[in-house]
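Backbone description:
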Amino acid sequence: MRTGILAGAFLMATVSSAQAEIAVVQDHYKTVINKQPYEVQVCTDRPVSGDKSGDMLTGAIVGGIIGNNVTKNVENGGAVGALLGGIIGHNNSKAKSGTARFCTVETRYNESQAEVYSHSTVRFTHNGRSYSLRFTK
């Protein structure tokens, strides 16, 4: 703002003394992009495996614990229980392979362009020298 006041005062002084030639004031504009966010739900089908190893491992752990407690005097009772528990866990597993639908929320943007005021310049000649001053209205 200070530059604009000084430029105006200088311009008036030069114009009033009749030594300045033609002064040209030009407004400058710039393009800005405005983004408006919105959300969408995006769903995709993904393959899922029918992995039964988790159920087998759980069965083996439970079978090993039961085998150790039931057969305290029998050698390798826990190992036999773990083996049987793993087999039962694998056979009773409800894991199925196929596809499953997964959904996520994404943020997207609508864009619009607008021309807005940037600044102005004044150009003039005084005593044979050209001057250009930039200012904001």
Residues 72 and 78 are 9 Å apart (CA to CA). Residues 51-96 form one domain. Confidence is low (pLDDT under 50) at residues 1-7. The two ends are 8 Å apart (CA to CA).
